[in-house]
Amino acid sequence: MDTQQVSAAPRAPSPVRRSATPTSGVMHINTRHTSRFTVIGNHLAQHRELSLLAIGLSTYIQSLPAGARIGIKSLSERFPDSEARIAAALRELEAHGYLSRTRERLPNGRVVTRTCSYNQPNGAAQRRSAPTPKPRHQPPAPAPAPAPTAATPTPPPLPQPRNPLPQYLRAATALLTDLHRHSAAITLTEKDVVLLAPAAATWFERGATPAALRHALTHDLPQPLKRPAKLLRYRLTALLPPPPTPEHPTVLLQNCDRCDRAFRSPTPGNCPGCSADDAPARFPVPGG
């Protein structure tokens, strides 16, 4: 008896042509629709700014017959999404021109909402200033920039003598160096003395005596005194006496040839104290 040959039934051909089969990613198995279908443009299906809920909701609305109810409550009963999420998706569609909602008053006085769905984005709706939906998790707002710090005003320049006589500058340097003996709070560095000496010399040029200048610089000091040089700079500038007038000329300040102390005299020489020491002593004459 001959052996009967058994062969398997041939497989059905693949619905996808081998030449069109991609090596990776999605493969489309398409069947032609002849009824109950809706044409959706790729501008909606592949929209880069709409959420998936908004794209799906627009697709569903475009598939409905005219006159269908698409209120928020009706949609929330139809789908598992909350009313808040559906309302946000409807606002997205309005902002991008796929939906418009206007309120109209009927002849009987009733107010209704007229909803229009667009299968192409409505340019007029896109131009409206519709609010852009906010993301669920917004990054914290950046902290406000600190207010610009007000610039410290530049102090006025120190007074300078018109005729910088050497004796005025020497007397001013000696007075400033000796101030700590009259007020322990005033301690100046050598740099401070060199900077302030021309201003003090201007006081002498304008007729101030060393005692008057010393009193102006040391009287009624603030407690505690943190910046003595800054205070002296202010007082030397703000309390500067006016320049002499022709009716009241300034008597020159001289340095004593003997003790080097400053004194006022039209001519150089010895101060009154040293002059008194040099004067001959007067003795009573016997029988006078």
Overall body shape: rod-shaped
Radius of gyration: 51 Å
Straight-line distance between termini:
193 Å
Which residues sit in consecutive blocks of at least 5 with pLDDT less than 50? none
| Tally of alpha and pi helices | 11
The fraction of residues assigned to DSSP E strands is 5-15%
Q: Could you tell me the number of beta strands?
A: 4
The number of distinct structural domains comes to: 2
What is the spatial order of strands in the main beta sheet?
1-2
Helix and strand composition category: mainly alpha
What string, H for helix and E for strand, traces the elements in order?
Answer: HHHHEEHHHHHHEEH
Quaternary? single chain
Describe the main β-sheet briefly.
Answer: 2 strands, antiparallel
Mean pLDDT figure: 80
**Fraction of residues in helix:** 25-40%
Explain the overall architecture.
The protein is mainly alpha-helical and 288 residues long. It folds into two domains: 36-127, Orthogonal Bundle (Arc Repressor Mutant, subunit A); 166-277. It contains eleven helices and four strands, in the order H-H-H-H-E-E-H-H-H-H-H-H-E-E-H. A two-stranded antiparallel ribbon has the order 1-2. A two-stranded antiparallel sheet has the order 3-4. A hairpin with a 5-residue loop joins strand 1 and strand 2. The radius of gyration is 51 Å and the shape is rod-shaped. The mean pLDDT is 80.
Write the layout of secondary structure elements.
Blueprint: H1 42-45, H2 52-63, H3 72-78, H4 83-95, E1 99-105, E2 111-117, H5 123-127, H6 166-177, H7 179-182, H8 190-205, H9 210-218, H10 228-238, E3 253-255, E4 262-264, H11 272-278
Antiparallel strand pairs: 1-2, 3-4
Helix pairs in contact: 2-4, 6-8, 8-10
